[in-house]
From TrEMBL:
Keywords: Membrane, Transmembrane, Transmembrane helix. InterPro entries: Perm_prefix_1. NCBIfam families: perm_prefix_1. The chain crosses the membrane at residues 72-94, 106-126, 150-169, 189-209. The lineage of its organism: Bacteria, Bacillati, Bacillota, Bacilli, Bacillales. It comes from the Bacteria. Signal peptide: none annotated. The keyword Aminoacyl-tRNA synthetase does not apply. This is Permease prefix domain 1-containing protein.
Length: 225
């Protein structure tokens, strides 16, 4: 099967021949030869079996730079479903804000996002049923890992800054002049607790990025099968 060997050599022509590249090259060669052998065992002529095996992979860029190939529609469908669930929880949690004036605008904003996410989910569900072929797309896994770390870092920094900001607004003068903090009644205590808790709703953003990474493994396309 010299044609397969030549094809694999061509795939890796632009890469430095490190140990990692050599192992990957050997694995791909073994997979393509096994695929050709399976096709020939099924009655496909040797030349056609080799052609089909070679055609099953035309580049290795997605393997070399950390990119993965995923089945696009089911991946997007489940990711939007997770986003919809998170937004529903956030919306329900902020329903009491409707009693607190301007803070109630956040609840309405989340309701709009829930509706948009629901419509997008229905559209993807309909599209998945109507399109009778597998759509494969490339996912930059290494970049997503960096994005996840950055998202959690920024979220932690945001929570810290918002906590300090709320503390400064609510108790700045008390702390500056060393006066005792006074909370007059359950209502003020509830409003104060809500002001501290509201920024934590933003956790849905890093959670969605985390979920997107987990779904990559679930919907990774097997090109070399």
């Amino acid at each position: 099967m010299s044609h397969i060997h030549n094809h694999v050599d061509h795939l890796f022509r632009g890469y430095r021949q490190t140990k990692q590249v050599a192992e990957l090259k050997k694995e791909i060669l073994s997979n393509l030869e096994a695929k050709a052998a399976d096709l020939m065992a099924a009655g496909v002529p040797q030349s056609e079996a080799i052609r089909q095996a070679i055609a099953s992979i035309d580049n290795v860029d997605f393997l070399m730079d950390g990119r993965k190939k995923i089945e696009l529609l089911p991946y997007c469908l489940e990711l939007v479903q997770i986003a919809l669930l998170y937004m529903l929880v956030a919306w329900v949690a902020t329903i009491p804000l409707g009693l607190l004036g301007r803070l109630g605008q956040l609840n309405f904003f989340l309701l709009v996002i829930v509706i948009v996410a629901g419509l997008l989910f229905l559209a993807l569900l309909f599209g998945k049923k109507m399109i009778n072929r597998r759509i494969v797309s490339t996912y930059n896994y290494k970049a997503a890992l960096r994005a996840r770390r950055l998202a959690w870092l920024l979220w932690g920094l945001y929570i810290l800054l918002m906590t300090l900001n709320t503390t400064a607004l609510e108790f700045g003068s008390n702390l500056w002049f060393s006066r005792p903090v006074s909370i007059s009644g359950p209502y003020q205590f509830a409003v104060l607790g809500i002001r501290y808790a509201l920024p934590f709703i933003s956790i849905v953003i890093p959670l969605l990025i985390h979920a997107s990474l987990k779904l990559v493994h679930k919907y990774e396309a097997g090109d070399l099968q």
